[in-house]
Write a structure and sequence with these properties.
single chain, mainly beta, Immunoglobulin-like, 6-stranded mixed sheet, elongated
Length: 606
């Protein structure tokens, strides 16, 4: 049909960009005829408007600024809403998606302006006016009048009188042959229309050699009303198979009424929702839990009060997701950070008022997923969340010495221990609010053993007082010993127990600041074990007795050889002068005043 040839020749069909804004004739996006002729893949190409300076109205234009939205949302920012204005005392509109449909039915120039509200990681809101937005010029308006007929059809009259100074109007329908218009003249009335119909307008003049159509009108028949909308969804944070679906940007032609019913078909389930005129989008909402992962077709039928049904479909991919069960551990200058706020649902960590300068260590060695068949294989660290990997390995480390906000991205790669090609990646975000505190008094405990007696080292070199020097370090080791010394010091503990170690620093101007930590020392494992070089020996044969397998801090040994002789050596030698069986016993004293013993039998022959 000639009209489709002309459609393909229109200058508006090449998918070009006006800056980062895409502009469409929305009636073509919603047209079933265009969808059938060009397919979903090429529908946008054929609805695109490349020249917005001299448009013939009335026209519903869809603005799509998705490309701008992607750029603005980099760096941790999220767009909360879009505020649209078109000048000429037009009403300011708001949307929550990067697209908006506006009807232009008056001649004139329109300045498109868009402001976005941005929300950062700390939920603070800022506004930004987008640059390089297009101008819409509506040079001419074609009058359109509809008349309902008794047989259920309608007639549409087009009045292109305002275009007379451009040339003579010619009208084309789908059945127009070759280059012959269906009708010539400024005012054209269609035959009765029962279903969606395309009408083409060409303004012919002597200076114009192109056969291109100047405007395409999509007319909805009584049996096929123009209903449009977009299927959108959100995934549950708790269950990666549970989705919430909703219809957004719902639009119907005048005379069709509002949407009375939504019928969803998902997998083998059907959900019916009644439309609420006061909150139409919310009333369309359904929740569905998929049985398996994979690709699915989502279908919803919209029924307005006029009775026509419009079907909208969307393909989605339900992807398997893991949740982190055992989380990251954080250390500041070697000390575990306790006051970490964790959002398990979003995979975010918040370290607020984090004192600097410090070295932040992040330990992922014990990170596990909620599914035991997935093992953590690889960890990467992006210390400034710029998309580049700064370190690999299960431990990350970052020196922070400047005040301000830091955003760290950590990515985990989990592999299925049964299926080698089944790999799932998870991303978590760490937000650090670094502040230089008025004072930060702290010390590290260098403890090489957990058993007493022990020599413990203490290091307070990272302690600081803002705008002042520390002149004294006063240590109370918790065992009734206090010592004024350096920032680095050692102390010997003789007995096991819990010791509250306190540090008080004194500045050059006499101010005092204190902190304390606990040192725990266990008693060493204690055991007495004896053995001998011979269990059977003749009289006067020297026998070596050995206690070297005994464990613990032993202070005294007492051997009783069973013949009236004793020894206080650790490993004595003894001989017997009479035959018989002797019970040998070793009793030991430990430093913590424990007493233990072990014994054995020796047989002596003549």
């Amino acid at each position: 049909m000639i009209i489709y040839g002309k459609i393909k020749d229109l200058p508006n069909w090449g998918l070009l960009r006006l800056g980062d804004v895409r502009i469409y004739d929305n009636s073509k996006l919603a047209s079933e005829i265009f969808r059938e002729k060009f397919g979903e893949k090429n529908l946008e190409v054929n609805a695109f408007i490349s020249d917005t300076t001299n448009i013939i109205g009335p026209i519903d234009i869809k603005f799509d600024i998705s490309e701008i939205a992607k750029k603005e949302e980099k760096g941790g920012l999220r767009i909360k809403k879009y505020i649209w204005s078109f000048g000429r005392n037009e009403r300011i509109e708001e949307s929550f998606e990067p697209s908006f449909i506006k009807k232009f039915d008056k001649k004139g120039n329109y300045d498109v302006e868009v402001e976005i509200e941005l929300v950062d990681e700390l939920n603070q809101t800022t506004t930004k006016k987008l640059k390089n937005m297009p101008k819409i010029g509506v040079g001419y308006i074609v009058g359109i009048r509809e008349r309902q007929l008794n047989n259920g059809s309608k007639q549409v009259t087009f009045d292109a009188t305002t275009l007379k100074d451009l040339g003579k109007a010619e009208w084309f329908l789908e059945d127009s042959k070759d280059d012959e218009p269906t009708y010539k003249g400024s005012v054209y009335t269609t035959k009765p229309i029962f279903e969606e119909t395309i009408v083409g307008l060409k303004v012919r003049n002597d200076n114009k050699s192109s056969n291109q159509l100047d405007r395409i009108f999509v007319i909805n028949g009584e049996q096929a009303g123009n209903i449009s909308g977009d299927i959108e969804f959100t995934k549950s944070n708790a269950d990666d198979k549970e989705y919430t679906f909703q219809i957004k940007n719902i639009r119907t032609n005048e005379g069709m009424g509002t949407i009375e019913k939504f019928v969803w078909k998902i997998e083998d389930r059907q959900y019916t929702r009644d439309g609420d005129i006061d909150n139409l989008e919310k009333s369309s909402e359904v929740k569905h839990k998929f049985g398996n992962y994979g690709k699915y077709d989502i279908t919803v039928e919209l029924t307005p009060t006029s009775g026509e049904i419009r079907k909208i479909t969307k393909k989605i991919d339900v992807i398997k997701e893991l949740k982190i069960k055992d989380k990251l551990t954080f250390y500041s200058n070697g000390e575990k950070v306790e006051n970490v706020i964790v959002n398990d649902l979003t995979g975010e960590y918040f370290l607020n008022e984090f004192g600097i300068p410090t070295t932040l260590s992040m330990d992922a060695r014990y990170v596990k997923s909620d599914n035991i068949i997935y093992s953590l294989e690889e960890v990467t660290w992006d210390y400034d969340s710029d998309g580049n990997i700064d370190a690999k390995g299960k431990k990350g480390e970052l020196m922070i010495n400047k005040e301000g906000k830091n955003k760290i991205t950590v990515r985990y790669k989990f592999r299925n221990i049964r299926l080698d090609d089944d790999v799932i990646e998870i991303k978590e975000i760490i937000y650090v609010e670094a502040v230089k505190k008025e004072h930060d008094i702290n010390f590290k405990i260098n403890q090489s053993t957990e058993y007493a007696p022990a020599i413990i080292g203490f290091d307070a070199t990272q302690s600081m007082v803002k705008d002042s020097n520390i002149s004294k370090f006063i240590w109370n080791f918790g065992d009734q010993i206090t010592e004024e010394g350096d920032a680095v010091i050692k102390h010997r503990y003789l007995a096991d127990g819990e010791y509250q170690v306190s540090l008080t620093v004194v500045t050059s101007d006499g101010k005092r600041y204190s902190t304390s930590k606990k040192v725990v020392l266990k008693p060493k494992a204690q055991k007495v074990k004896i053995k001998s070089s011979l269990l059977n020996a003749p009289i006067h044969q020297g026998i070596d007795f050995d206690s070297s397998e005994s464990i613990g801090d032993i202070t005294n040994y007492l051997w009783d050889f069973g013949d009236g002789n004793i020894s206080t050596e650790a490993n004595p030698t003894h001989s017997y002068s009479k035959a018989g069986t002797y019970k040998v016993k070793l009793t030991v004293d430990f430093r913590n005043r424990n007493v233990m013993e072990d014994q054995m039998e020796i047989t002596i022959t003549n």
